[in-house]
TrEMBL record:
InterPro entries: BP-dependent_transpt_permease (IPR050366), MetI-like (IPR000515), MetI-like_sf (IPR035906). Residues 85-273 form the ABC transmembrane type-1 domain. The lineage of its organism: Bacteria, Pseudomonadati, Pseudomonadota, Betaproteobacteria, Burkholderiales. It is found in: Cell membrane. This is Peptide ABC transporter permease. It is a multi-pass membrane protein. Belongs to the binding-protein-dependent transport system permease family. The chain crosses the membrane at residues 89-113, 133-156, 205-230, 251-272. Keywords: Cell membrane, Membrane, Transmembrane, Transmembrane helix, Transport. Pfam families: BPD_transp_1. The keyword Protein transport does not apply.
Length: 287
């Protein structure tokens, strides 16, 4: 299976870029030159490439090179962008897990039990009528801006799409002979769902999860850019760009450097999803 995936150019590009970003996220404490939250008023809006002494949080100073410059609070943008990689990947991964897990559970219940289907899918239709970004903003405002609340706020609008996908698969799978045979043998319903139906829905769920992860990175950046995402003391690409936009004409790097990380991340996750779809989906594999 992996050999087939590796032959797919979209998957190969996506996985290599994501592995590089994952390495950056893990090694951020080593690659980052200073604490991303440390401020030095002597280096406000310092141009990139400048060398000097940076005041640390404990009051000491260290020789430092501002590879990407400093923002209007005197914080090193290079270190903030590196730590922002960690935050964005965490949000993407946890959002995909929450949305896919909850959507798969609800979709199996709706597809297998007709009485549940009538009520549950009307609720899902109502949620899909609300724009995802507006629903996320409302949830963040109600729950507060923390990592887990942002993950939940981004994941909830994605749940109806996953639910509809799984429901459609279950409606087909429940009529298959192997499911009817399991029912004839008095197999408990939870066992049928877990052992016979869920494994046959995993491939579409994995593909859908990658697209949710890509959307989560963008949505988190939008929320942070609007000031509704994670707190300013947690570096994210969105709040770095939000803080830099007021001085974009004078210091465009404050916005462009985090954007240069954001764009390939979303592109790589989408290409990874395309590659997985091409190999795992029988309709695309035949092509």
């Amino acid at each position: 299976m992996f050999a087939r995936l590796w032959r797919n150019s979209a998957f190969r590009f996506g996985i290599l870029v994501l592995l590089a970003l994952l390495a950056v996220a893990i090694a951020a404490p080593l690659l980052g030159t200073v604490d991303p939250a440390a401020m030095d008023s002597a280096h406000i809006n310092t141009p990139r490439g400048t060398r000097g002494e940076f005041a640390l949080l404990d009051g000491s100073t260290v020789a430092h090179t501002f590879w990407m410059g400093a923002d209007n609070f005197g914080r090193d943008i290079y270190s903030r962008v590196l730590y922002g990689t960690r935050t964005s990947l965490l949000v993407a991964a946890f959002t995909a897990l929450v949305a896919v897990g909850l959507g798969a559970l609800l979709g199996m219940l709706a597809g297998y039990f007709r009485a549940v289907d009538v009520v549950l899918m009307r609720v899902m239709d109502g949620m899909m009528a609300i724009p995802a970004i507006l629903l996320a903003i409302a949830l963040v405002a109600a729950l507060g801006a923390q990592l887990w609340t942002v993950v939940i706020a981004i994941a909830i609008p994605e749940v109806p799409r996953v639910t509809r996908l799984v429901r459609a698969l279950v409606l087909t799978l429940r009529e298959e002979p192997f499911v009817e045979a399991a029912r004839a043998l008095a197999t408990p319903t939870p066992t049928i769902l877990a052992r016979h139906i869920l494994p046959n829905a995993l491939a579409p769920l994995i593909v859908q999860g990658t697209f949710i992860a890509a959307s989560a990175v963008l949505t988190e950046a939008i929320l942070s850019f609007l000031g509704l995402g994670l707190p300013a003391d947690i570096p994210t690409w969105g709040n770095i760009m939000a803080e830099g936009r007021v001085q974009f004409t004078q210091y465009p790097g404050n916005v462009l450097f985090p954007a240069l990380f954001l764009v390939p991340t979303v592109l790589a996750i989408n290409l990874l999803g395309d590659g997985l779809r091409d190999v795992l989906d029988p309709k695309f594999a035949k092509r």
